Amino acid sequence: MARILRHDAGRLLGNVPEEYVFRCCDGHILKNMKELKDALGSMTDEAFAYHSGEERNDFSNWVRDIIMDEKLARDLAKSPSRAQAAKSAARRIAFLSSKLV
C-alpha cells in the first residue's frame, strides 16, 4: 500500500477546482470529501440511489477521477447503502486528517 504523506493528505482533503464540483440531483454542490460525507449523511435514499447503483457510481467516479483517491473510490463503489458510504468517507477523512498533524 502506498504511504500517504502530509502533502498528499492535504491535497486529498482540499477543495476541487470550481469546474469539477459534484452537483447532486438534490441540489447539493460538493467541493471536497467532507462535503461529500455530510451530503451522504443528509441526502435521501432516493438521491443516493440516483447517483449509485449497478449501472453508475457517480460518487466513486468523482472521488477517483477528480479528488484522485483510489482507496475511498473503491470503498464507495462497494457501499450498498448511503449510511455505509458516509461511514467509509468519515473513516477516510479521519485517516487523512491524522496525517496532517
Description:
It is a single chain. By secondary structure, the chain is mainly alpha-helical. The protein has helices at 6-13, 33-42, 45-51, 58-67, 70-78, 82-98; strands spanning 22-23, 29-30. The protein has one domain. Helices cover 60% and strands 4% of the residues. The chain has a two-stranded antiparallel ribbon with strand order 1-2.
Could you name the key traits of this structure?
101 residues, mainly alpha, 60% helix, 4% strand, globular
Write the layout of secondary structure elements.
Layout: H1 6-13, E1 22-23, E2 29-30, H2 33-42, H3 45-51, H4 58-67, H5 70-78, H6 82-98
Antiparallel strand pairs: 1-2
Helix pairs in contact: 2-6, 4-5, 5-6
Provide a concise account of the structure shown.
The protein is built from 6 helices and 2 strands. The chain has 101 residues and is mostly helical. It has one domain.
Q: Unreliable stretches, pLDDT < 50, 5 or more residues?
A: none
What class, by secondary structure content? mainly alpha
Shape, per Cα inertia axes? globular
Give me the side-by-side strand order of the main sheet.
Answer: 1-2
